[in-house]
Q: What sequence folds into this?
C-alpha cells in the first residue's frame, strides 16, 4: 500500500509577481477540453499526487468551513484559560501535557500533540516578545494555580522542547521517521534564558509549599512535577557540555522525581476540554486534519525514564580508551531495546564527533591512526612519520607522511560515519550499510593504490609463501577490507533482527553468514601473518638497543591481543551460523520447515537468491557466490542427514565454547596503564547480557539438533521424507527468540492426532 | 483457496470512471486513516487503467480492487508497482485479493510480452506506449514488481509471500499511524539485481540536502568536509 504520509511540501512560489485575473484565460483553455477529459502534466509525479489536497473536502482541507458552520465556532474554542482550576485538574493537565511532549519525542508532529493544548496556544501565539508576554491571556487570571503554577510548568515544558528540537535538528535524522521538526511558525521560546524558567518554577514551588488549603498529597504531586521540569530543563541545557561537566546529576534527579510522579498520576483529573483539534486549522501547514495522538501515562513515563537512564549511562563512554572500546560502547548503548530516543541518538552523534574531534578530546586523525595501529600497523613507520618532523621533501619519511595525510583526508569521514551509523534508526542503519558497503568497496581499491606507493617508500620486504609469488602486507586496504567484512556481516545480522528473511531462506542465510565469517577469519590470519613478520624484523633490527623497544613491544602486544579477540568473536559467530545452517538444511529437506512461498509462486529460488544478494552484487571482494555454487554449498548436497546433524552438533559445541571465551574476554580491552579497573558499567552489563542471550540461543539450538536426530533415527526409511516433527520459527520479540540475530527453531515431536 | 462463484472479475474501463472510481475510493478509504486525493487515483488509472482489476458481486457491487502501475525504474528495466489492494471485509479470506493480484501481475507480463512481439516481430519498432522510443526491446519485460505493506498486516504479507515476493527491507514509521512497512519484491527475470541504479530511494523521504548520500552523518558531513 502507498504511504499516506508523504511530506507535503508547498511548492516554492515565485513571489513578487503581482496577482492578475486569469478567469478568462482559464475559461478559454478549459473550453477546448471535452467533458471528462483528463490532462496530466508530464512532470506530475506520484509524489505530488499523494501530497495533493482536495480543497473543500473536510477530510483533507483543514481550513474548510462547512456550509452552516459558524466561522468563529469552527476556529475558536469556548475554553476559558483564565478559569480557576482545582489542584487535581492542574495535576491532570500537567500529565496530559507530559504525554503529548513524549509523543512528540517519539516522532509525532506538534500539531497532533502539544499544539492541541489551548494553554500552549495562548502562550505561544502571538509570538511573545518578552517573558511577560508569554501568558495565557492578556488579563491575568486570579488563580495563582493557573497564572503561576501551570504557567511555569508550561513555559518550562516549551523550553525543554526547544532544547530537544535544537539538538535533533542539527544532527542527522529522518524527518517523519524519527522526528517531525515542523514548528508551524511558532517559536519555542528559544530567545529566553533558562534562568527565567528556573525562577518561575522556584516561585511556583514556594507558592505551593505555602498553601494550607491544598491537600498534602496534591501539594506533593504538584511539587514533584515542578521539580522534574526544573531538573529536566537543566539536564537538557547541559547537552554536549557533559563532556566538560561529566555530570549526570540532573538526569539522576529527573529519575528520582519520576517515581513520586508515577505514583501520583491517579490523583490528577484530566481536562479534555483544554485540548482541541481546532488549533490545527490555524497552524501554518499543508497537512489535512489529523487526529490527536494519545499515549498513556505509563508509556510516557517509561519513555522518559529510559531517556534519562540512557543519558546517565552515556557517561560511561565519554572516556576514550581506544577505538575498539569506543565502538563497542556506542554499539551496545544504541542496541538497547527499545532503541534509545531520537534525542539521545542525536546527542550521541554530537558527542561522537564534533569539530573533527572525538568525544571532544581526540582528533579524528588520532582516532583513525589508533584504529590502524590496533589492527594492521602497530609501531609502524607509516603512522610514525609526520610532516611536522621531517621537512626535507626528498626524505621518504616526508613522502610517507604526505601519502598518509592524503589517506587520512579521504578515509577519516567514512570511518567516523561507520562509528556513527548505529545512531540511525535500525531500518535505516541496515539500508545505510548496504550503501556504505559499496563505498568501502571503492575505498578499498583506493587504499590499494596508496599501499602500492607506500610499500616502495617504506621499502617493505615482501613475504614469500612456499615458493609462491612475493606478497606484501597492503595494510591500508587490508584494514578497509576488514571494515567491509564487518559491514557485510552486520547487513546479514540486521536482516535477522528486522525479520527480513522468510523461513525457507534461513538455511541459505546462515550459510552465507558463515561464508562471510570464514572469509573474514582468513583475512585476519593474513593480517596477523604480516604483523608477526614485522615484529620479527623489528626484533632483529633493533635488538635491545632502542629505548623505544618496550613501547614497541606493547604496541605489538595490543595489536595481537585485538586480533585475537576479534578472531574469537568471529569464530563464535561462524560456528553458530554453521550449526543453524546444518540444522535448517535437514529440516528443509524433510519439508518440516515452514515456507512462506507456495508452489504456485511466480518466482524461482534462483530469482529469490538474486533479490537477496542485491546489496552484494556490485561488490568486487568478496566475490558474489554464483547461484549454482550457493545451491550446492548451502544445500549441503551429497551429505547425508546424519552427517549434517553431526556437523551441527560439533559446530554448536564449538560455538558455545567460543561464546564462553568471548564473554571471558569481556566487552572492553583493559587499559594496562590504569592501576585498577573500574567496576562493570551498565553498558558492560548490557553487552554481557547480549552474549549470554546468544549462549541461551546456542543451548536452544543443541536441543533442536537433538530433537531432529531423534526423529530421524525413529523415522522409517521406507516412508516419505517427512519427519514426525513440528517446527516453529519464533518471531523477533517472542519469548522463545533468545536473540534477535539467532533464529533458533523450536523443534518438537508432532502430537499424533487421535 | 477457491474463488467465490458468484463473483465477476473485470478490468477497469476509463469510460466507466464515474461509477468505478467512486466505489473504489470508498472501498480503499475504509482502511485508511486519511483518504488519498482524487489525483492519486487519476495518476494510476489515467496511465495504467489496464493494470487495474475489480471484483464485483452478483449485484454488481464492487467488493475488491487492485491498482498498479508499470514503468521504467530509474531509466532501467520496467518495474511494476502494486499501489493499492482492498477487499471488502465480509468478503475476505476467499482468495479474492490473491486473484486480483495475480490478474495484475499477469497483465503486466502480458502487456510487455505484447510489446516485445510488436517491436521485434512485425517490423514496427515503435512501441504502443509513447515516450519510451529508443529503448532496447528486452528491457520491456518487467524485471520486478514491488510494493509496501504494513508490518502488522500479516494477511497481506502472507498473500504476497505465497506468490513469491520477498521482503527486501523494513521501512521505519512509513505510515501515518507510525507503523513500519516492509518493501516486498518479486523478480520476474534474471539480471535485475545487477543493474546499477542511482542510490536515491524513490519511496524514501527526500534527503535533507541535495548532494548528500544516504549514508549516515549527512548533516554533519559539513563539518567533516572542512577536513582539508
A:
Amino acid at each position: 500500500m502507498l504511504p499516506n504520509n508523504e511530506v507535503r511540501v508547498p511548492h516554492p512560489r515565485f513571489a513578487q509577481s503581482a496577482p492578475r485575473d486569469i478567469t478568462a484565460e482559464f475559461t478559454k483553455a478549459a473550453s477546448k477540453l471535452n467533458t471528462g477529459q483528463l490532462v496530466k502534466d508530464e512532470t506530475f509525479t506520484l509524489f505530488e499526487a499523494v501530497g495533493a489536497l482536495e480543497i473543500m473536502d473536510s477530510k483533507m482541507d483543514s481550513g474548510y468551513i462547512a456550509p452552516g458552520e459558524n466561522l468563529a465556532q469552527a476556529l475558536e474554542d469556548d475554553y476559558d484559560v483564565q478559569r480557576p482550576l482545582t489542584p487535581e485538574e492542574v495535576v491532570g493537565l500537567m500529565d496530559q501535557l507530559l504525554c503529548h511532549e513524549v509523543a512528540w519525542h517519539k516522532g509525532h508532529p506538534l500539531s497532533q500533540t502539544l499544539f492541541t493544548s489551548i494553554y500552549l496556544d495562548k502562550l505561544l501565539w502571538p509570538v511573545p516578545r518578552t517573558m511577560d508576554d508569554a501568558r495565557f491571556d492578556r488579563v491575568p487570571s486570579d488563580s495563582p494555580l493557573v497564572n503561576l503554577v501551570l504557567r511555569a510548568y508550561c513555559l518550562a515544558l516549551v523550553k525543554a522542547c526547544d532544547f530537544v528540537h535544537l539538538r535533533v535538528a542539527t544532527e542527522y535524522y529522518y524527518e517523519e521517521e524519527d522526528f517531525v521538526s515542523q514548528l508551524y511558525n511558532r517559536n519555542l521560546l528559544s530567545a529566553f534564558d533558562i534562568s527565567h524558567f528556573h525562577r518561575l518554577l522556584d516561585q511556583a514551588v514556594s507558592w505551593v509549599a505555602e498553601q494550607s488549603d491544598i491537600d498534602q498529597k496534591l501539594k506533593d504531586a504538584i511539587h514533584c512535577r515542578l521539580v522534574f521540569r526544573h531538573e529536566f530543563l537543566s539536564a537538557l541545557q547541559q547537552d554536549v557540555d557533559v563532556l566538560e561537566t561529566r555530570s549526570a546529576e540532573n538526569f539522576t534527579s529527573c529519575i528520582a522525581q519520576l517515581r513520586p510522579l508515577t505514583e501520583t498520576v491517579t490523583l490528577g483529573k484530566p481536562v479534555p476540554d483544554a485540548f482541541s483539534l481546532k488549533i490545527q486549522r490555524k497552524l501554518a501547514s499543508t497537512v489535512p486534519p489529523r487526529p490527536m495522538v494519545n499515549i498513556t501515562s505509563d508509556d510516557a513515563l517509561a519513555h522518559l525514564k529510559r531517556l534519562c537512564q540512557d543519558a546517565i549511562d552515556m557517561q560511561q563512554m565519554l572516556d576514550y580508551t581506544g577505538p575498539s572500546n569506543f565502538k563497542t560502547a556506542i554499539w551496545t548503548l544504541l542496541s538497547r531495546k527499545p532503541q534509545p530516543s531520537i534525542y539521545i541518538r542525536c546527542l550521541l552523534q554530537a558527542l561522537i564527533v564534533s569539530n573533527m574531534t572525538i568525544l571532544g578530546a581526540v582528533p579524528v586523525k588520532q582516532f583513525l591512526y589508533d584504529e590502524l595501529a590496533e589492527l594492521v600497523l602497530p609501531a609502524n613507520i607509516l603512522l610514525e612519520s609526520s610532516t611536522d618532523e621531517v621537512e626535507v621533501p626528498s626524505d621518504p619519511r616526508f613522502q610517507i607522511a604526505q601519502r598518509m595525510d592524503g589517506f587520512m583526508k579521504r578515509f577519516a569521514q567514512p570511518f567516523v560515519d561507520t562509528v556513527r551509523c548505529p545512531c540511525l534508526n535500525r531500518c535505516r542503519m541496515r539500508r545505510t550499510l548496504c550503501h556504505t558497503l559499496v563505498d568501502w568497496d571503492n575505498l578499498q581499491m583506493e587504499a590499494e593504490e596508496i599501499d602500492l606507493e607506500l610499500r616502495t617508500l617504506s621499502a617493505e620486504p615482501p613475504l614469500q609463501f612456499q615458493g609462491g609469488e612475493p606478497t606484501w602486507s597492503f595494510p591500508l586496504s587490508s584494514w578497509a577490507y576488514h571494515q567491509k567484512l564487518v559491514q557485510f556481516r552486520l547487513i546479514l545480522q540486521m536482516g535477522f533482527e528486522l525479520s527480513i528473511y522468510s523461513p525457507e531462506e534461513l538455511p541459505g542465510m546462515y550459510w552465507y553468514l558463515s561464508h562471510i565469517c570464514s572469509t573474514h577469519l582468513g583475512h585476519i590470519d593474513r593480517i596477523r601473518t604480516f604483523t608477526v613478520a614485522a615484529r620479527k624484523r623489528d626484533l632483529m633490527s633493533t635488538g635491545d638497543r632502542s629505548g623505544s623497544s618496550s613501547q614497541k613491544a606493547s604496541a605489538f602486544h595490543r595489536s595481537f591481543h585485538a586480533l585475537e579477540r576479534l578472531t574469537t568473536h568471529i569464530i563464535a559467530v561462524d560456528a553458530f551460523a554453521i550449526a543453524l545452517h546444518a540444522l535448517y538444511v535437514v529440516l528443509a529437506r524433510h519439508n518440516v520447515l515452514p515456507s512462506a512461498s507456495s508452489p504456485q509462486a511466480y518466482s524461482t529460488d534462483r530469482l529469490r537468491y538474486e533479490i537477496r544478494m542485491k546489496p552484494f552484487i556490485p561488490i568486487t571482494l568478496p566475490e558474489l557466490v554464483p547461484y549454482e555454487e550457493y545451491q550446492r554449498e548451502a544445500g549441503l548436497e551429497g551429505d547425508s542427514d546424519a552427517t549434517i546433524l553431526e556437523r551441527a552438533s560439533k559446530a554448536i559445541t564449538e560455538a558455545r565454547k567460543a561464546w564462553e571465551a568471548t564473554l571471558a574476554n569481556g566487552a572492553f580491552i583493559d587499559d594496562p596503564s590504569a592501576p585498577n579497573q573500574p567496576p562493570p558499567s551498565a553498558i558492560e552489563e548490557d553487552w554481557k547480557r547480549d552474549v549470554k542471550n546468544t549462549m541461551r540461543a546456542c543451548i536452544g539450538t543443541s536441543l533442536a539438533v537433538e530433537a531432529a536426530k531423534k526423529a530421524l533415527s525413529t523415522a522409517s526409511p521406507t516412508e516419505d521424507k517427512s519427519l514426525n516433527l513440528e517446527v516453529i520459527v519464533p518471531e523477533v520479540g517472542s519469548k522463545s527468540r533468545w536473540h534477535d540475530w539467532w533464529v533458533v527453531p523450536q523443534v518438537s515431536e508432532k502430537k499424533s492426532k487421535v | 483457496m477457491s474463488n467465490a462463484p458468484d463473483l465477476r472479475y473485470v478490468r477497469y474501463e476509463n469510460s466507466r470512471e464515474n461509477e468505478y472510481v467512486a466505489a473504489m475510493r470508498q472501498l480503499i478509504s475504509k482502511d485508511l486513516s486519511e483518504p488519498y486525493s482524487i489525483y492519486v487515483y487519476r495518476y494510476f488509472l489515467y496511465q495504467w487503467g489496464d493494470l487495474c482489476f475489480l471484483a464485483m458481486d452478483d449485484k454488481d457491487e464492487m467488493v475488491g480492487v487492485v491498482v498498479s502501475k508499470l514503468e521504467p525504474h530509474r531509466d532501467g528495466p520496467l518495474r511494476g508497482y502494486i499501489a493499492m489492494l482492498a477487499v471488502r471485509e465480509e468478503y475476505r479470506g476467499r482468495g479474492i485479493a490473491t486473484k486480483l493480484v495475480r490478474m495484475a501481475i499477469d497483465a503486466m507480463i502480458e502487456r510487455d510480452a505484447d510489446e516485445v512481439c510488436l517491436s521485434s516481430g512485425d517490423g514496427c519498432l515503435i512501441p504502443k506506449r509513447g515516450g519510451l522510443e529508443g529503448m532496447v526491446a528486452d528491457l520491456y519485460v518487467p524485471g520486478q514488481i514491488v510494493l509496501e505493506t504494513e508490518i502488522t498486516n500479516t494477511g497481506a504479507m502472507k498473500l504476497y509471500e505465497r506468490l513469491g515476493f520477498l521482503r527486501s527491507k523494513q521501512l521505519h514509521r512509513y505510515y501515518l499511524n507510525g507503523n513500519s512497512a516492509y518493501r516486498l519484491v518479486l523478480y520476474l527475470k534474471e539480471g535485475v539485481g545487477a543493474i546499477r541504479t542511482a542510490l536515491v530511494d524513490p519511496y524514501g523521504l527526500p534527503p535533507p540536502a541535495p548532494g548528500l548520500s544516504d549514508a549516515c552523518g549527512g548533516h554533519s558531513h559539513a563539518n567533516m568536509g572542512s577536513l582539508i
Q: What stands out?
A: The radius of gyration of chain A is 32 Å. Chain A touches chain B through 85 residues (CB under 8 Å). Residues 276 and 725 of chain A are 57 Å apart (CA to CA).
